[in-house]
Structures are given as C-alpha cells and as structure tokens.
Amino acid sequence: MCGIIGFTGAKPVKNILINGLEQLEYRGYDSAGIAVLTDTGINIRKRTGKVAQLREAAMDLTEEAFCGIGHTRWATHGGVTDTNAHPHKCGKVVLIHNGIIENYRELISDYGLKNKLVSETDTEVVAALLDTLYTGDPIKAIRKAVDRMIGSFALCIMFEDHPGEIYAVRNVSPMVAATFDDNSIIASDITAIIPYTKDYFVVPEYHILTIGKGSIKVEDMNGNEVKPEILTVNWDISSAQKGGYPYFMLKEIYEQPDALDRTIRPRVKDGLPFLLEDGISDSLFDKIKRINVIACGTAMHAGMVGKYVFETKLRIPVNVEIASEFRYKDPIVDSETLTIVLSQSGETIDTLEALRLAKRKGSPVLSIVNVKGSTIARESDYVLYTHAGPEIAVASTKAYTVQIAAMYLLACRYGLVKGIMSEDDAKEFITKLENVRGLIEETLKNANRIKMVANRIMIAPDVFYIGRGIDYTLSLEASLKLKEISYIHSEAYAAGELKHGTIALISENVPVIAIATEENVHAKLISNVKEVKSRGAYVVLVSHDEPLNDSSICDMQIRLPEADSTFSVFATAVVLQLIAYYTSDAKGLDVDKPRNLAKSVTVE
Ligand code: M6R
Predict the structure, then answer these.
(1) What is the dihedral of CA 97, 103, 105, 110, to 10 degrees?
(2) Which atom of ligand 1 lies at the shortest distance from residue 376's CA?
(3) Average pLDDT value over all residues in the chain
(4) From the alpha carbon of 351, which atom of ligand 1 is closest?
(5) How far apart are the first and last CA of the chain?
(6) Model confidence over 227-247: pLDDT tens digits?
(7) What pLDDT is attached to residue 277?
(8) What is the pLDDT of residue 502?
(9) If residue 34 lies in a helix (H) or strand (E), which one and from where to where?
(10) Is 475 in the pocket of ligand 1 (CB under 6 A)?
(11) Are 8 and 183 in contact (CB under 8 A)?
(12) Rounded Cα distance, 57 and 324, in Å
C-alpha cells in the first residue's frame, strides 16, 4: 500500500525522494508527492497518476534542498485527487502518512480543526492536529498527538522552523531507517533504502525518531533514548531490479529454483530436516494436537497445500483460516494448537491481528515470513524465514513456492519427531523436496507452449480451473493469479463439485484448465474433464499423462515432469503462474502493478 521515504543529509534530496518513490511503486498507489524543506520554507509537489508524472511536476523544484519527504498514496479516505495526495501541510507542519486514523472525526470536533482542512483525508487531520498542538517543540507536539490518535500510522513529519530534521513515529504500519555517511534515510520498506546501505533498523512502535543529517535519535514516549537493533539485508540492489526481464513477475517466476534452494538447503542436515538453527526445537511439537494456519491470499493457498501434507501424511488435523475471518470470530485455539502464520511481507494487517489473537488464546505461534524483521516475524514465538529475496511484483510467485517448501520442512520434522515418519521416509521426503528445483527447471523449458494457452484464453470472459485434492488447492491459487493480473473473471472448482451447479456455466469454448496430478483420483478427474468437454469447453490438461492426442479429453496438454503429486505442486505452480503472466502480458496490461492492488495490505 502507500509508500514512504524521507531523507536528510549532504545530498540534494529531490531526486533521492523521487527515485525512492519509484523503488516503492510496486507497493501499489494512485498518487504521489514530495515536500522539500529549505531555509526559506516548505515546497510541495503532488500529483495523481504515476511517479513519472510527479517527476515532471517537480521539474521546477529547487535542487538546493537537502531534507525532504515523499509518498505514494493508495486511496482509503477520500478519492484519488491531487488535493488528497500526500504530503499534507498545515501551518508549519508538513507530513506523510501510511495507515488509517480511525478517530479522525472526534479529533476534528475535539480540536475544532474543520476550518484547517482542505482535503478529504484522515491524514490532513493529523497535520492540523499537530499544527494546533505545536508550540516550537516537535517532540512535545508529536507526543500529545499520538496520545490522542487511534488507528494505524507511520508518520514522517517536518516542521518549517526545524530545517534539516524529519520526525517519525509509528503504530502497526511499518517503517525502517538507516544512516550512512552524513545522511539519514527512512522508508516504508527496505527496497528504498538498499541503494544506499544494507544496514538498517526497524522503527519501533510508539517511539519518536529525530532524524538529522547522519544521525537518528530514537526515544520512547517518556523521552528515554533507545538503541535499536541493527539488521543487515542479505540481498543487494540487483535483486530488486528487473535484470533484463520485461517484468518483475517473470523474473521472480524464474528465480524459484534458487529461492527454493536457499530456503531448503540450510535446513537439511545428514539428509534430514533440521530447524534448530531457526530456534525451532523439537519440544515445540510435544503438546501439539492440531494446527491452525492463518494467512491471506496466496499465502493462505500455500497454507492449504501444507494442510494437505500434514493431514494426509501425518494425520494431524489442520484448519486453514482466512486471517480476516479468524480475527473476528471466537476461534477454537488453545495451547495445544500450533498456529502457523504465513506472510511474504510480514506486515499484512489482518494476518498480524489474527496472530495476536491466537497468542492471546495461548497458542504457540510459528510464522513463515519472507521479510526479515517484519512485524509478524517479531511478534511470533518462532520464525522460519523463507529466503525468496525481495518479491516486487504484486502477484506473488516465488514467495508462494518457498512458503510451501517451508511447510514441507516443518511437516517432515514433525513427522520424524513424532515417529510417524521413519528416518528413511524422512530422508526420501527431503531428497524429493531438494529435487523440485529440477522439476521447475524442466517446466520452465515449456514456457513457449504455456504461452499458447495464454494466447487462447486472453479473449475469454471467464476461465475455470478444476482439480481434486492437492490440485484443487493449486486451482484456487491459479484462479487468483489470473484474476489479479489479467482482469479475467475466473473460478476454481473442486472438479467433483461442478455438477452441483457450476457446470451450468460451461458452454461452447469456455476455457477449463484441469489439473490432474493426483494418482488416486486421476480417473475421476478425467471423467470430470470429459463432462465439461462434451459441453463444448476448451480444455487445457495439466498432468503427467503421456501425450493423449484425444480431442474428447482435451484441446491442449501441458505435460509435467514425472513426480509424486506432493512434489509436483512446485512445477504445476510454475505452469499456472506462467499462464497468468502471459495472459496479462498478451493483453498489454501492467503485469507487475495490477489495478486497485497493493503488494502489502496494511489496512483492513
Ligand atoms: O504479504 P502477505 O504474504 O501476507 O500477503 C498476503 C496477500 O495479500 C498476498 O499473498 C496476495 O494475495 C498476493 N499478492 C496475490 O498474488
């Protein structure tokens, strides 16, 4: 969602801010703006549309400014207009904000702010509030404002009479900060910082930062100074660039073999899963009678694949819950329930709140997270980091397959510890997991054939994905992927369920993508395929089958490399990701930045 950057130092700030906003574009936004602070005052430029439009609008802005803040806005309160774009200025105060101020109406009436407001945003209310409370001491004003604000916020604030300084404070919405040479930088995520330094810290919640040139003071709300823990990113700027690919999504699809290696190999010792170095000791499993998986979107679909393995191979009940549903019911979770939280960003607000609820109910929480130091990682009892590297495209690909791999490692360790899997079984499982790299590489060689599917479905108004068992969970993910980047309506159906209603929608030439890797239900799935085929569907079969050359079954076949369905998921996922990618590309859409979507969903 919204992106934040702030910089103060020895370098002219304008282009640093605009370049930083470009780095943050992937988060999703609909307007952008910057404010620079000079000895003579504050200058603001803001525009709806892309950062490129802001760059043009800022052409006339002075290069002689060394302190400033920039923002990409994903509209929540108030429409997409120049006025609603950030930064917002009121009196001597100018600020940018990520999050939602829930009690903005009370603040307006309690402090009589109405006449100070020109936009429809909750953010401007904070600027007006700070202006009202400000008597020359920024920290005092921020403390008082924070005391009254309810909601999530990451705020970067400048005061006209404090040149060279940026103040920051946050609750829930993430920010990271760093110093290098005589410069300081703050941002909503590490991608805007990485061009300058690999060492950074996560801004602690409810602490106020005074950011000067090359120095950052962090103090709690009582004024006690705090030394934040410095973290180091383990990837470099080239990982956050396209590296010759037309889109990040395609690059990230191709990065999967390496991402999987990085996630799996350090956790294998003598051929067996080994999680002790991640702080996960076997005693965690002692009391566990059931598992709860909480996540959103693609991460939740990865959890469904994990459920399948835990249940079929280990016979432990697993409940997969959409985080936004889980958090508003009274879930059945206790100290005998292991809660596994899946999140690429580690910042998804519903997932975070669901995690907190599970903890309050006494459940041990283990998170599988990609972003180091993210809020979900920090609040979990145990963390299994995936090592996918930065995922920039909004559509999640490599984060999904590494999440599945992490679930598999965990399942295998659990099976071993509980004596459900013998050492030999576990070794065989791990060898197969290590070999998925090869399956993916083999599948990627088929990209041109997969592109032909995309050329066929790009004109379709609706596409159906069907599968059974583990293939059904993949259908759900495939359908989400296609919808989000190609804007084609799509549904995923458990193949056996079609006859109970949805088959009414199957008519001449409706594309049906059938996934059939599950041996025990293969014949059943083929019967379902024939049912849709005989109603005129255009069927694409994704399976291990030898070439069928049978038009009564399918119009096109994508053959997967031979493997058990448990491990075929990785290759199947790649096929389905490529179908979505090529469809979006063929339609001429912006694959990496689909409309209305944000990479990390930090508001409810
Ligand atoms: O960062 P998270 O993994 O918590 O994000 C969860 C979902 O928002 C995310 O997986 C989303 O569904 C994907 N971007 C879709 O491709």
Answers:
(1) -110
(2) 4
(3) 94
(4) 4
(5) 11
(6) 999 999 877 777 778 888 999
(7) 96
(8) 87
(9) strand 31-38
(10) no
(11) yes
(12) 39
- Residue 296 CA, ligand 1 centroid: distance in Å: 6
What SS3 state is found at 73? strand
Give nearest CA residue, ligand 1 atom 6.
296
pLDDT tens per residue, range 419-434 = 999 999 999 999 999 9
Out of 14, 398, 427, 599, the active site residue is 599
Ligand 1: does its nearest atom lie under 6 Å from the Cβ of 600?
yes
Distance CA 218, CA 226 (A): 5
pLDDT digit string, tens, across residues 274-333: 999 999 999 999 899 999 999 999 999 999 999 999 999 999 999 999 999 999 988 999
Q: Is 386 touching ligand 1 by the criterion CB < 6 Å?
A: no
Q: Are 261 and 437 in contact (CB under 8 A)?
A: yes
CA of 399 to the centre of ligand 1 (A): 9
194-209: average pLDDT? 95
| CB distance 394 to ligand 1 below 6 Å | yes
The pair of structure tokens assigned to 408 is: 């598999």
554 is catalytic: no
What was the pLDDT predicted at 546?
85
Instruction: Tell me the pTM.
Output: 0.84
Q: How far is the CA of 496 from the centre of ligand 1 (A)?
A: 28
Answer for the pair 4, 188: CB distance below 8 angstroms, yes or no.
Answer: yes
Using a 6 Å cutoff on CB, does residue 395 contact ligand 1?
yes
In this prediction, residue 28 has a pLDDT band, given cuts at 50, 70 and 90, of: confident
Cα of 110 vs centre of ligand 1, distance in Å, is: 38
- In 3D space, the residue among 144, 101, 133, 136 whose CA is nearest the CA of residue 120 turns out to be 101
**b/e 269-286 (16+ beta carbons within 10 angstroms → b):** eeebbbbeebebeeebbe
- Looking at beta carbons, which pairs linking 101-107 to residues 24 or more positions away fall under 8 Å? 101/125, 101/126, 101/149, 101/150, 101/151, 101/153, 102/150, 102/151, 103/148, 103/149, 103/150, 103/151, 104/77, 107/148, 107/149
Question: Is 2 annotated as catalytic?
Answer: yes
Give me the mean pLDDT over the 90-105 stretch.
96
**Distance in angstroms (rounded) separating the CA atoms of residues 144 and 577:** 49
Q: DSSP for 416-485, please give it.
A: HHTTSS-HHHHHHHHHHHHTHHHHHHHHHTTHHHHHHHHHHHTT-SEEEEEESTHHHHHHHHHHHHHHHH
Ligand 1 site-directed mutation target among 26, 188, 320, 348, most atoms within 8 Å of CB: 348
**Hunting for tokens 């001429």 — which residue is that?**
588
Rounded to whole angstroms, how far apart are CA atoms 551 and 370? 43
DSSP structure string for 143-163: HHHHHH--EEEEEEEEETTST
- Euclidean distance between CA atoms 234 and 282, whole angstroms: 27
